[in-house]
Fold these 4 entries.
Entry 1:
Amino acid sequence: MMSRRAKLATCLVFVAATAAGSVVRAQSSSEDDTTKLAEEILSCSALEDEAARLECYDALAQPLLGLEQATEKGDAAALESFTGTDDWNSEVLEIQRPWRLVWQNSGSLLTVELWTPQEEMLDVIGNQIGQGGGRSDVLEPGSYRLAVRGLGGWNIKVVSEDSN
């Protein structure tokens, strides 16, 4: 009979492998990335300390959500960051390089719309039902406005998506 920890680790590996598989396909990476992620999840599950285990899992999830922290080498950090509750409209944002939107929602609904400076809606680039996070497709540089339509608290970041 499998222990509760072994069952949890097996479940996490399956979920991560499935999710990572989608991310890997979307980013045209090799199957080795999925195997590496599964091994890292197993490594996290072996940590005895609950706080250290959670920190390990969080560190693995950040790149999948586009939430990587800036490093000394100057990796992508947030170009813009906004936190709020319910509805909000940005001023015009001048974005000079390819970018994506990354969000965290603590409310029940979050939709982020992309608008022109002349207040014409271009697209919905973020949508979250319930608590959680996600990220948009890569968008072209330009002048934009963001419009958040939410029920509850949220945080959005504009992050550089350089193709280096």
Note: Residues 5 and 124 are 40 Å apart (CA to CA).
Entry 2:
Amino acid sequence: MCKVNADWGLLLLMYLMCSWNRIFRLCKLAYVGQTSRSLKIQFQGHIRYIRSNNPQLAFALHILQNQHEYGHMNNIMTLLKPLSSPNTLIPYEQYYIQALYRADKLIPEQYPGETNPLFQTVINPQPPHTT
């Protein structure tokens, strides 16, 4: 269990999946985000942006631009990692974003500008060189 610091709360990395599904076409791309709020409150915030046609968040932009659908929180939202230190939040978030990007599972609205070679080494390790 992750300890909660009273000064900044519990930090969460979350994963939202587009649930758009039509005959022969399926989206299933993902968004990675961070929050210090509960997953339910964070999910409601994303849905509020979608319902008000406000594309300020990458997930809302993806749903609105592509006329995709979103599902129930229990079906499309996953806690990736609870974190007890704010210093690890951005590195973990960037790691998950790059891992999904390399696997072609990240929504285009969240594509990283550059790939980090350190993360690439962890995501796609090279076999040891033998002589």
Note: Residues 1-10 have pLDDT under 50 and may be disordered.
Entry 3:
Amino acid sequence: MQVLDNAKKICISVIGSGDDALNPQIAKIANEVGREIASRGAVLVCGGLGGVMAEAAKGAKENGGLTIGILPGGDSGSANPFIDIALPTGLGFSRNVLVVYSGDAVIAVSGRLGTLSEISYALLKKKPVIGIHTWNLEQLSGRMPSYEAKAYRDSIIRCENAKEAVDKAFAIIENKEKCKNETN
């Protein structure tokens, strides 16, 4: 009889542009993020389409990882070929909420307006957001009261490469789990 492992797997949401014409440097970084996530036994969650999502999922698959794609449309066939579990939602961009809420941490690689919406949802949910060449929310700080400005300025943890980003994500998740276990 097979015994199931009931330990919860760490899930990392990877967000970024769905544009298939990615800058080669961004494509490489996204692929490396996926590889790093898989090398640690975590599950990669993304929007399941092209661009950063496909490159990250490809990197995870090449390193033996499990990938979940939360799709905007109703057809599981629209998922990129590196998605193991395709979850069609029929929600359009509203599925961005599900993408970021499903991760224990969020890694943003570059990105456009859809990525900005995902960053916003993650911050509202108090999810850690680690960014590589992504949005700079400091530009918002000049339009807010000073007590809120610092929160936006420091809200995205900036990293230069995939390893550093995944290291930070795991450090935050493990610290959060440690704190939770100490209070129980």
Note: The chain is about 45% helix and 15% strand.
Entry 4:
Amino acid sequence: MSLKNWDNKTWLSSNKYIKTFNNFLSKQIKLNRDSQILDIGCGRGKILGSLSSKLRLKNKPIGIDIEKHKDRDRRIHFKKINAIDFMKKNKKKFDLIMIKQTIHLLKFKEIKKLIYASKMQLNKNGKILILTLETSHNEIPTFLLMKRKLKKSLDRDKKIIQYISKLYPKNKNKRFSFKVKISRDKYTEMIKNRYISTLLGFSLHCFKMLVCLIINDVTKNSGFYQISALS
């Protein structure tokens, strides 16, 4: 089962989030109209499409994902393919390669292979931006079983970050934060739609029993943090 709804009418697809993220991105790397950009795990491509408009890119940025959505952004050149297969076939060079909320779905050998291949396909002064959830102070509202699975996933994310830092000691870590205000009903709907990979293993019957256990007051601001490792 793949992750289909992380950017489907969630805060991650909101104009405010996209604008905030792209402003953060512009502080990490100098991009211009001639920049060549690849987004691995682009989803519906709204973030990449917005960035393309902001920079007035001469060439459409490339977004790849294993899900092909009918409502994907038309400002990007989309390819339905997994990252490693794409890297084997690709002949282009990029100024920016983003790996967004995807690295945790790979095995350690695959991570090593993907990052190495990405580095080989960077232009001079190009950067790889890897985004993963904040592992220490995450404030995503959860029910008990989801919380246990999320902790297990975040523990693995910690190991992945350490692994990447060992492979590439000159990496720089940055924090991106975005405050969310969302109703209980809306957040419950996001959980039913499995907006995060932690929820992929739950059955529909399980959701009916468990969503009522969400006791967090999600009508207040809930912090959503990401760490970006640049190399």
Note: The longest strand covers residues 122-133.
